[in-house]
Amino acid sequence: MSFQLNLDLPQITSPACIHLRSKAMYVAGQIGQTESPADPGSGACWCNQTQHVVGPDQKYVNRRECISGRGCFKTTY
């Protein structure tokens, strides 16, 4: 019997902050709409403002958290 990865995570429909960076941007060319470990480069995110895994608001950055409503969120430059 072969191993099958089954993750039922909901898609993220809101746009990400323009300062969010991910390894997936350099591997796949974009940040995906899911947060699946099967996605190339998933899990490796950082803020372009702080160059760290913690944003200017001292909270961790990731695709699910860096959305509208967060104090440091930006849609355009």
CA-to-CA gap between the ends?
Answer: 51 Å
Order of the strands making up the biggest sheet: 1-2
The unreliable regions are none
Helix and strand element order: EHE
- Percent in strands: 5-15%
What's the main sheet like? 2 strands, antiparallel
By secondary-structure content and strand pairing, the structural class works out as: little secondary structure
The DSSP helix count reads 1
Total count of strands: 2
From the spread of the alpha carbons, the general shape counts as globular
Can you tell me about this structure?
Helices cover 6% and strands 8% of the residues. The chain is globular. The chain has one domain (13-77). It is largely without helices or strands. It has one helix at 23-27, and strands at 20-22, 45-47.
For this entry, give a set of tags.
single chain, two-stranded antiparallel sheet, 1 helix, 2 strands, 6% helix, 8% strand
Helix and strand topology:
Blueprint: E1 20-22, H1 23-27, E2 45-47
Entry summary:
This protein is mostly loops and 77 residues long.
